[in-house]
Amino acid sequence: MADEKTSDQPERITVLARDFTPAAMEFHRRNMSEKGYRMEGQIVQRKFQMIEGLGAPKDLFDGESFYAVTFVRKSADK
Predict the structure, then answer these.
(1) Does the pTM of the predicted model rise above 0.85?
(2) What's the rounded Cα separation, in Å, for the pair 54 and 46?
(3) Vertex 66, ends 63 and 72: CA angle to 5°?
(4) Could you say which DSSP state residue 34 is in?
(5) Measured in Å, how far apart are the chain's first and last C-alpha atoms?
(6) What percent of the chain is predicted at pLDDT more than 90?
(7) Which of 13, 15, 33, 70 could tie 40 with a disulfide, CB 3.0–4.6 Å?
């Protein structure tokens, strides 16, 4: 991915983890800063749901909460 042009990289990447530490370490493990990303917001537990059409939202992952960390491409800030 290091050889890819910045414009070819997604603007935002969200990673989910069952535990806080792996989510917190992901930024460094994948060298996200070097790839042009910064961390957006806090790493917090979230419950995920999906809405299809006009129906009621349905739980994803059997309703289990995950820690979520989002990386945003620095060039997207401008």
Answers:
(1) no
(2) 23
(3) 130
(4) T
(5) 22
(6) 81
(7) 70
